[in-house]
Specification:
Strands 9-16-15-14-13-12 form a six-stranded parallel sheet. Helix content is about 35%, strand content about 20%. It has 16 helices and 16 strands. Helix 2 runs parallel beside helix 4 and helix 6 packs parallel to helix 9. The radius of gyration is 24 Å and the shape is elongated. By secondary structure, it is an alpha/beta fold. Strand 6 and strand 7 form a beta hairpin.
């Protein structure tokens, strides 16, 4: 893919056009921009054109990432009849994504996801390659080489890897490896023996975070890093006399949102100093932190996400939408239809505000999800959100019209992975793979 033109020849009896007998079929791929040693980023051009005619398909793109998208589309155009013969119809496609950020959040904190489960999620095409991956059965940790392997596996498929290191809350596991990082909770005037969020009152916390973020910069090539900032319980901070003394010294009074703001502002500034862009959960905005203007806010709260989109873009921040796509939540019936009702730019605001919505993210939180049920929970339900984030809004708004596409794609997934998506889309039907 690093040259100007590649040609693939599918031999006789492999592929047949609707208008001819079986014959060789040539796929030509032309990439305008040389080089494929880099990583996909927020400015990557993923557009492509694809022309399928008698005996050949011609794919043209500006970048290697667009070529990857085009090859995926080409693979989905090929279909098989009841006798095992493959066909492809004549077609002309001009395609590009609606949003640059189309994310899938994998929660590796609540239930450890083995490396092979992560790689399988990234790779629809060759799952057997990732099945040979392994993880340490006792430590259940990711080494730096594991992370690099995931990043490279993703890069070869045009996928960005954005890490989230959520703090100051959700950090109990951090405390086990970093004594003094978490706030000691008190019962009356004595420590209770339990610990709360990261302790934002001591210098050692910020030295640790600076060291962590420097390693993140070294390992993760993407320009974004997610800093979390959500669901912080203030009870432990309130119980700790040293924290209360720090609050008084800083003039925060009894407003612990100001203490969280102090902490988050500090680590966002560290991230900026490393030439990384912070993503944070909307809580950080809600607490009125002095947020760098290039910070990306991610909306996760409530059903009225349109009001949140309006409020945050009015402040000039770029925004990601996640709230309506928490697919770790499951229900009886065709809950995939809800994904097609989501309209990320349908809110009260100017055209300039709507341009600040850079995409969305499907969230697969891990309270009740591990490697055994990750794939069936994800697929094909995540495909609905993926189509909404890639394709023209008007053409993907109708769930009834989307159903045949999603049904066929589910069958394609079953053809490749066999068991991966045992979630059925409707009350009846059959997939012959």
């Amino acid at each position: 893919m690093c040259v100007d033109m590649l040609m693939f020849i599918l031999t006789e009896n492999v592929l047949q056009n609707m208008w001819s007998e079986p014959q060789p079929f040539v796929v030509s791929v032309s990439v305008k921009t040389r080089g494929c040693d880099g990583y996909p980023d927020e400015d990557s051009d993923e557009s492509y054109t694809l022309s399928v005619s008698e005996g050949q398909a011609v794919l043209r793109s500006v970048s290697v990432w667009g070529a990857l998208r085009g090859l995926e589309s080409l693979s989905q155009l090929v279909y098989q009849d009841d006798y095992g013969t493959y066909f492809i119809n004549k077609t002309e496609i001009v395609d590009f994504p609606r949003f640059a950020f189309r994310g899938l959040l994998l929660d590796t904190s609540r239930h450890y996801l083995p490396l092979h489960a992560i790689l399988k999620t990234l790779s629809r095409t060759f799952p057997d390659l990732s099945n040979k991956g392994a993880f340490h059965p006792f430590t259940h940790i990711y080494t730096q080489s594991d992370v690099i392997r995931v990043i490279e596996h993703a890069r070869m498929r045009g996928i960005r890897v954005v890490p989230e290191f959520d703090s100051p809350g959700h950090t109990q596991s951090w405390g086990k490896g970093q004594p003094g990082l978490l706030t000691p909770c008190y019962k009356g005037s004595v420590p209770s023996g339990s610990f709360g969020p990261v302790d934002p009152t001591v210098d050692t916390t910020y030295k640790f975070m600076e060291s962590l973020l420097k390693e993140v910069k070294f390992v993760f090539p993407d320009s974004y890093v997610h800093l979390g900032g959500d669901e912080v319980s203030f009870a432990c901070w309130q119980s700790n006399p040293n924290v209360r003394k720090f609050m008084e010294k800083m003039g925060f009074g009894k407003d612990f949102t100001k203490l969280e703001s102090f902490y988050m502002e500090s680590i966002m500034n560290m991230t900026a100093a490393l030439n990384k862009t912070s993503i944070v959960w909307q809580d950080v905005f809600d607490y009125h932190e002095r947020i760098p203007q290039d910070t990306v806010l991610e909306i996760w709260k409530g059903e009225k996400y349109q009001a949140e989109l309006s409020r945050m873009t009015q402040a000039g921040h770029r925004v990601l939408l996640s709230a309506p796509w928490y697919i770790n939540h499951i229900s009886y019936g065709q809950d995939w239809r809800n994904s097609y009702a989501v309209q990320p730019q349908n809110f009260s605001g100017t055209d300039e505000q709507k341009k600040l919505v850079i995409g969305g993210e499907v969230a697969m939180w891990g309270e009740y999800v591990d490697a055994t049920n990750l794939s069936p929970r994800l697929w094909p339900r995540a495909c609905a959100a993926a189509e909404r984030l890639w394709s023209n809004e008007e053409k993907t708004l109708n769930a009834d019209l989307a159903f045949p596409r999603l049904k066929e794609f589910r069958c394609e997934l079953l053809r490749y992975w066999k068991y991966v998506c045992n979630y059925s889309l409707s009350t009846s039907g059959y997939c012959g793979y």
